[in-house]
Amino acid sequence: MGILIRLAVSAFTVWLATLVISGITVGGDTGHKVLTLVVVAAIFGVINAVLRPIIKTIGCWAYVLTLGLVSLVVNGALLLLTSKIAGALDLQFNVDKFWPSAVLGALFIGIVSWLLNFLIPDRGDKDRKRNDRRPPAPPRQQYGGGYQQNYRGYR
């Protein structure tokens, strides 16, 4: 269920990017737009999940040298790649240019997705909160006293 919520959030943020950034467009009627946005969000998610760790590993020096600003370029390139793949799949999603459309679009999508994912609770968050309510384990005596105390009593 969580992956569907994240997919919906990503599709929504891509749609918002088409409204805010002038070089990002999605075509078709309403039904085709929604389907296109969901598929584009899935493609963008898969590309980010597969390629971003590889790029970060190979270009670690660039991230360190630019204090992480190269991530804007990488995100823009991944959004442009998403546009090319969507075009190959005959989806009506287009990013015109690398600068400023792809870079600003990726920045916008990243910030809005982060905000929405922060506001929408995830099931894993609820499980972590539930596990945090357990009482702490009693302290163990490590040295001295001639005995050791554990959870069940004295040995």
Concise structural overview:
The chain crosses the membrane at residues 7-28, 34-51, 58-78, 98-120. The protein has 155 residues and is mostly helical.
Features:
155 residues; membrane; mainly alpha; transmembrane; transmembrane helix; Phage holin family protein; Phage_holin_4_2; globular
Rg, Å, rounded: 23 Å
Strand arrangement across the biggest beta sheet: 1-2
Mean pLDDT: 87
For the largest beta-sheet, the strand count, sense and barrel status come to:
2 strands, antiparallel
Number of helix segments? Answer: 6
Helix content: 55-70%
Number of domains: 1
Order of helices and strands: HEHHHEHHEE
Task: Report the principal-axis shape.
Answer: globular
Residue share in β-strands: 5-15%
Structural class: mainly alpha
Distance between the termini: 47 Å
Number of strands: 4
In the predicted model, the low-confidence regions spanning at least 5 consecutive residues are: none
Protein name: Phage holin family protein
Keywords: Membrane, Transmembrane, Transmembrane helix
Biased composition (Basic and acidic residues): 126-135
Pfam families: Phage_holin_4_2
